[in-house]
UniProtKB/TrEMBL annotation:
This is Amino acid permease. Signal peptide: none annotated. The chain crosses the membrane at residues 30-52, 58-79, 99-122, 134-155, 167-187, 199-219, 235-259, 279-304, 324-342, 348-368, 389-414. Residues 1-20 are annotated as: Disordered. It is found in: Cell inner membrane. It is a multi-pass membrane protein. One of its GO terms (biological process) is amino acid transmembrane transport.
């Protein structure tokens, strides 16, 4: 058995994914694909982590980031092999329909819908707060200013999303580096803050950590973009997830070290920027907007193409009128919900992460097992030891316990302070 996280087939048959499912094929570069993962992951979750862990502390957060990152990467690699075994292009719901059946397809589609809507609500709310701080305008107007360019890129499609993710992700990396260095040399930084907290409060932090690794949804998009070079897919997944983990660890580390656990705001970069000074206020919150924008593109684009894949009677996604209609279905409800008073910034992330995490812990395993029996082609790349049944059971148990905790919390069976 291979000692590497994945194994290349001895005699791969690189058949072209020529069959159409209404989804267009646009080639992605390696950097664009990695940026799609980083951009999708680094969204509202990274902004809420310091606040969500204000009772538990930084060390439990770091632990859960590592656990969630590892097992989410494994799940993404299951989806990667499943997509590469399938001649026709599909999104997650289409792959589930192909290999698990209608129940699995609807479960995945609802997972995509709930997670995407929950995230887009959070981005609408978060962007409105940031732009309100910037320009002294109302949060609703700020959200509208964010919404217009975000929706435009979604309308333009996969290649525009890939290029946008690439340039803005590079900018986010640069801004993060500047802010972290400024934090390290600031006289008010107290690294002892990172050791504060209480591990008894660690359980709720897991669901926020799970949501921060939400890029499973873009794997089929990447497989479509890598149909000309399928061996790049797993490497891009692993690279993107590793960069994501580093960024997710660095941002709350800097914020907590600088401001302490007790001074966290729901959108952490507001407190971060205020503590470092006026220049950092604008830099940190520009980072926040970029993070929400790239994640909006990743999750929103995935939701849009899942709709086309699930409801193939809509026809091609390249039809402008149909695409505009589906785009409205994806983008308008989150804007309305953000200002309906029905959901909060962190709670939206919390329950979206729980629901989608459970579905995405089980379905990729079932899809992979079925694809290995019923797939169309022998892929150029296959999972190795990470597909062992013990690892698959661990993934399922971990996320089921997360769901059980969320249900108990919602029913009031757990301490309110959690």
């Amino acid at each position: 058995m291979s000692k590497t996280p994945y194994a290349v087939a001895d005699e791969p048959h690189e058949a072209s994914h020529a069959e159409s499912s209404g989804l267009e094929v646009k080639r992605l570069t390696f950097v664009e694909a990695v940026a799609m993962i980083v951009g999708t992951n680094i969204g509202a979750g990274v902004l809420s982590m310091a606040y969500a862990s204000r009772k538990a502390g930084y060390m439990p957060l770091l632990f859960w980031l590592a656990v969630a990152g590892i097992f989410t990467t494994i799940s993404m690699l299951y989806v990667s092999e499943t997509a590469l075994r399938t001649r026709r292009h599909h999104q997650l719901s289409g792959l589930a329909q192909r290999y698990v059946g209608s129940f699995g397809a609807w479960a995945i589609f609802l997972s995509v819908a709930v997670n995407s809507i929950g995230a887009l609500v959070a981005y609408m709310s978060g962007s409105g707060k940031v732009l309100s701080e910037f320009f002294g305008i109302s949060p609703a107007l700020g959200s509208l200013l964010f919404f217009l360019p975000a929706a435009l890129v979604l309308f333009l499609g996969l290649k525009a999303i890939g290029k946008g993710e690439k340039f803005i992700s590079i900018g986010m990396l640069s801004m993060t580096l500047v802010l972290v260095i400024a934090t390290l040399v600031n006289e008010n930084t107290q690294f002892a803050n990172l050791l504060e907290g209480d591990w008894i409060y660690m359980i709720p932090v897991f669901n926020i950590a799970v949501f921060c690794f939400s890029a499973q949804y873009v794997v089929p998009e990447m497989a479509r973009g890598f149909s000309h070079a399928p061996k790049r897919l797993p490497l891009a997944v692993i690279t993107g997830m590793l960069i994501t983990f580093i960024l997710l660890a660095m941002v709350p580390m800097s914020v907590i070290a600088l401001t302490g656990l007790e001074n966290q705001s729901e959108v952490a970069t507001l407190a971060w920027g205020q503590a470092l000074g006026q220049w950092a206020f604008y830099t940190a919150n520009t980072f926040a907007l970029c993070a929400m924008m790239t994640s909006y593109w990743g999750l929103g684009g995935s939701f849009l193409t899942n709709i086309f894949d699930k409801f193939q009677s809509l026809g091609s996604e390249s039809n402008p009128k149909t695409r505009l209609m589906v785009l409205a279905i994806v983008c308008v409800p989150p804007f309305i919900l953000a200002y309906s008073g029905m959901v909060g910034f962190v709670s939206a992330l919390y329950f979206a992460g729980v629901f989608s995490g459970v579905i995405l812990s089980i379905m990729p395993i079932l899809m992979l097992r079925s694809a290995r029996k019923n797939g169309d082609i022998v892929p150029a790349w296959q999972c190795g030891w990470i597909a062992h049944p013990l690892i698959q059971v661990t993934v399922v148990v971990l996320y089921l316990l997360s769901m059980a905790y969320a249900i108990c919390g919602a029913l009031g069976w757990l301490p309110a302070s959690w």
